[in-house]
């Protein structure tokens, strides 16, 4: 079926372009975004994946689709693949909340499968495989739990689930060796979501990629509104991916080091409890500070309290080195403890 918009049209530089009712004067962005530039962005992203994971993924631009962030990708997947009256989706629980929100809005029945284990990185694979859901959403590493799903569980679900498996890798850059992106060649039911908001620090741009086999990408492209990849975002991302990989690695390393340093300070310290993290956020609670979120707010530090299996944690994003130093001192002072012991 033909796309509602003719977005793939190539233009030669000498052509007089009068087909899109564009403004010939305008400022820098008077033309609709160029498909060629979008292709170049896809190539830059693939090159980044190959470099970062140290592999030849054999991905091509046909395996990628730009989205306005991974959140937009989830919405697009539901609108594309969960439209039938008898569709049902399965999510690991707890999960990234917007999935449940959109499922409710679109009247899609949803089943939860609880994450288990001390670090909530396991799931009952048999239950997932035998469910009648047609789409299974897994967040790897997970928000809110901050841990990766056990790789045997993950691979077994991808291998045996009788429907689409969507793996949201929004945080994967913080533990890149756990990525399953190259499996999209072997598994035609696998969709991987990537975000530019986290390790690449581009949350304000709204950018991410869906990675899947070309048939799934074509179906998604058909439903997606045209020109999602605007000219500014497209050029800026290509520039970052091509020219700023070294800086990206340095910033990522700083975040990982700060995270691990914070966790090693507080894990087991006098009333504090933390979960291990494969992301750029930390879950912490402290028996001595029951209203931790409020206490931190009184120091002008904004965090988020949330419950995981009825246990209340505060979720803290890893800030810069100074911010983490200030935060650490406040926690130590408020709990009246000494990290040396
Ligand atoms: C698991 C997960 N997926 C997707 C997103 C949304 O990412 P984006 O900014 O790319 O839309 C988030 C944001 O926090 C998230 O935690």
UniProtKB/TrEMBL annotation:
Keywords tagged on the record: Aminotransferase, Pyridoxal phosphate, Transferase
EC number: 2.6.1.9
UniProt cross-references to Pfam families, sorted A to Z: Aminotran_1_2
Transmembrane segments: none
Acyltransferase among keywords: no
Location of the Aminotransferase class I/classII large domain: 28-318
Coiled coil start-end: none
Catalytic activity, reaction form: L-histidinol phosphate + 2-oxoglutarate = 3-(imidazol-4-yl)-2-oxopropyl phosphate + L-glutamate
InterPro entries the UniProt entry points to: Aminotransferase_I/II_large (IPR004839), PyrdxlP-dep_Trfase (IPR015424), PyrdxlP-dep_Trfase_major (IPR015421), PyrdxlP-dep_Trfase_small (IPR015422)
Cofactors demanded by this protein: pyridoxal 5'-phosphate
Name of the top EC class for this enzyme: transferase
Pathway assigned in UniProt: Amino-acid biosynthesis; L-histidine biosynthesis; L-histidine from 5-phospho-alpha-D-ribose 1-diphosphate: step 7/9
Protein name: histidinol-phosphate transaminase
